[in-house]
Amino acid sequence: CVVNDKLYVSGGYDERETANGMLCLESGDEGKRWVLKAPLLERRSQHVMEALDNQIYVLGGCRQEHNSDRIVDVKSCETFNTVTNQWTFLLNLDTPITYCLPVKVDNYIICIGGCSYETGKTIQKCTVLSIKDRSTRSVPLKFPYRKRYRSFYCIRAVIRKKIFR
């Protein structure tokens, strides 16, 4: 995600385990370079990452359990202050959020669909994170042709504060 013309990348997988690193692509007199930032509070991959003001919000994802091939859902949300270089736990999610697309509208981050690694099922809900209230709520997704459409990697657009997918 991008904050103040800087690209931030977090988590992922580093060939051995799920990562908790945070990198920032910064521009300086000597050109662009990757700078290591404070690590995530919880290791995660395939998560949602969205910015609002100088804060980066990281929601959900999955991780491989230590010394195991088992992959589990990560249901936490944490926030990164780009000025102080500090992570803060925000809340736990009721619904897994993996492989979904976020939409930022006003003080809300809306996560459309996705899947649960633990169950292998798609999530037929929108999870709405209220930044102001520091809370979430889930809204069911309704597709006109339920057997044909799923909410896995939906394409989204926001036009005049309405979400289209």
TrEMBL record:
InterPro entries: Kelch-typ_b-propeller, Kelch_1
Keywords assigned: Kelch repeat, Repeat
Keyword Repeat part of the UniProt annotation: yes
Pfam families: Kelch_1
Keyword Repeat carried by entry: yes
Name this protein carries in UniProt: Uncharacterized protein
Organism in which the protein naturally occurs: Sinanodonta woodiana
